[in-house]
């Protein structure tokens, strides 16, 4: 593999770290403000195999925070825009694109036979998010789940903790409650912001695509969530040994 473009990465994580990333296989579900940045950070680090999933197209309201969203890309599929960008970063990336909203009924098909090393949950709707986490946990695949970046504006409050340690996040609270019903109360790494959501920024919707409401967002918060999620995955994979975990 041509590693010239990864020269500075290799100085930091050495050849073994680069090889670990090159041989790794990561699933990213959701390519909005969080997932689009997370996928890019993974590609720029040298992750060699990636599956990206999203059925959405770019809307003008995405431009304030999402990497694929430009005036020139409105109406285009995010999975195509992000996928093309990832391959422009690393033409040798083994990339699979799934251009659909990940329906809970499709989890087995997405997971079976893929041997993922890590799953990034960047979904912002409860039902598919829950299904993805459960599917990963039942297959003993490591997962990092991104909670609500909406209604938040303090980047210093963003952190990664076990789901049992999350607080001040409505989405995390809902996911915690529902996971407990299937006997999962810990073991899921979560990116969340430990500050109070701005309730004045909440807007109700028609409930399509599993979504009943959303909070206002600022450009940098979803990107920071994606950065933390990607760093969690990359740091784990760099240290990964042949026997499994570090």
Automatic annotation (TrEMBL):
<dbReference type="InterPro" id="IPR000594">
    <property type="entry name" value="ThiF_NAD_FAD-bd"/>
</dbReference>
<dbReference type="InterPro" id="IPR035985">
    <property type="entry name" value="Ubiquitin-activating_enz"/>
</dbReference>
<dbReference type="Pfam" id="PF00899">
    <property type="entry name" value="ThiF"/>
</dbReference>
<protein>
    <submittedName>
        <fullName>tRNA threonylcarbamoyladenosine dehydratase</fullName>
    </submittedName>
</protein>
<dbReference type="InterPro" id="IPR045886">
    <property type="entry name" value="ThiF/MoeB/HesA"/>
</dbReference>
<feature type="domain" description="THIF-type NAD/FAD binding fold">
    <location>
        <begin position="12"/>
        <end position="240"/>
    </location>
</feature>
